[in-house]
Specification:
Blueprint lengths: L1 H18 L16 H7 L11 H14 L2 E8 L2 E8 L10 E5 L14 H10 L2 E5 L11 H13 L8 E6 L1 H15 L7 E5 L10 H5 L10 H13 L22 E6 L5 H13 L4 E6 L14 H15 L4
Parallel strand pairs: 3-4, 3-5, 5-6, 6-7, 7-8
Antiparallel strand pairs: 1-2, 2-4
Helix pairs in contact: 3-4, 5-6
GO molecular function, one term: triacylglycerol lipase activity
Family: Belongs to the 'GDXG' lipolytic enzyme family.
Keywords: Hydrolase
Length: 326
């Protein structure tokens, strides 16, 4: 009789759980098998996205460039602010290669030198030149200004350089902008880059993904949809449908996309957007890799140059790029 009652209790509990709209409060443990550097990052308090971190990131970028003997040269290409990020010693295997870096920051953060952080890390990893595009951003420049800037720079660069020697790399909003650029390049019959890195792409800015809801207040970088990501999406869309493929490029056609390597973390609010992008690329026959890091919130592979998971990811990016760059 006791066994029967226990089974009935279990059935009732499962039935109630299936009807719950909210999960009970729970403690988030720190996994044992992650690096100490990442542990400190994920144990940090939720980020305050109401304040600017631009000066801090710019300082980190400059210090990192100095430590790795990398120059950062400001330049204008077709009126678009850019930075040439170049190691003092170029890897002979990459002397003809160019990576175009498209920075993240929710279409509103990290202008100027702060835009170069990921580009400096990539230049150090590959030993090649990276062109960082400091595209126009919110609040003054919603969609499609930033995309237009990237297209303009691309058209100029590919006048003299073979697209088969060019990769594009970016994280978050930068990754989404790259995806939107590929959609635009198909519309305008432009040549496309040889290969892409899409780090935790903001490919779907709607609230209709699982991880936006499940990882809200778990992700200590993006933190909240209503308080940050949703507000940015509304500003960036500027009255357009947020599912417009230039704004949420996940909703576009992925056939003929360049080979792509993607990355995210299990606590990332954009985990679902990254997974969905990867699955859609694969379903269209595109060579695509997905790397998911334990307990990592949004783009925390960039939180510090010393995070081992970030170094591991950049090695994976290089392995993948090596297959497609001449």
């Amino acid at each position: 009789m006791q066994i029967k009652n226990n089974i009935q209790d279990l059935i009732i509990q499962k039935s109630l759980a299936s009807k719950l709209k909210y999960i009970p409060e729970k403690y988030l443990n720190t996994p044992a098998d992650i690096s100490e550097e990442l542990r400190k990052t994920i144990d940090a308090q939720p980020r305050d996205n109401s304040v600017s971190h631009n000066d801090e990131i710019a300082k980190i970028s400059l210090n990192l460039a100095k430590q790795n003997n990398i120059s950062i040269e400001n330049m204008s290409i077709t009126g678009v602010n850019c930075y040439k990020v170049k190691p003092a010693v170029i890897n002979k295997d990459y002397k003809d290669i160019l990576i175009i870096g498209v920075h993240g920051g929710g279409y509103i953060n990290y202008p100027g030198v702060a835009s170069t952080l990921e580009s400096v890390l990539l230049a150090s990893t590959f030993g090649c030149e990276v062109l960082c595009v400091d595209y126009r951003q919110l609040p003054d420049y919603p969609y499609p200004h930033g995309l237009n800037d990237l297209v303009s720079v691309w058209k100029n660069i590919t006048k003299d350089k073979d697209a088969s020697n060019i990769a594009m790399a970016g994280s978050s909003a930068g990754a989404a902008l790259i995806m939107a650029f590929i959609h635009r390049s198909k519309e305008e019959n432009l040549v496309k880059p040889a290969v892409l890195f899409l780090g935790s792409p903001a490919a779907d800015l709607s609230r209709d993904t699982d991880s936006v809801n499940v990882n809200e207040w778990v992700d200590n970088v993006l933190v909240s949809y209503d308080e940050y990501m949703g507000k940015i999406a509304k500003m960036y869309a500027d009255g357009l449908d947020v599912r417009n493929i230039g704004i949420s490029p996940y909703y576009g056609d992925f056939s003929d996309f360049p080979p792509s390597i993607l990355a995210t973390g299990t606590r990332d609010m954009l985990l679902s957007a990254t997974i969905k992008t990867h699955r859609k690329l694969r379903s269209c026959g595109v060579d695509a890799q997905l790397h998911v890091f334990e307990a990592m919130s949004h783009c925390q592979y960039l939180a510090s140059p010393d995070i081992p998971e970030g170094k591991e990811l950049r090695k994976e990016i290089k392995y993948f790029f090596d297959k497609y760059l001449k």
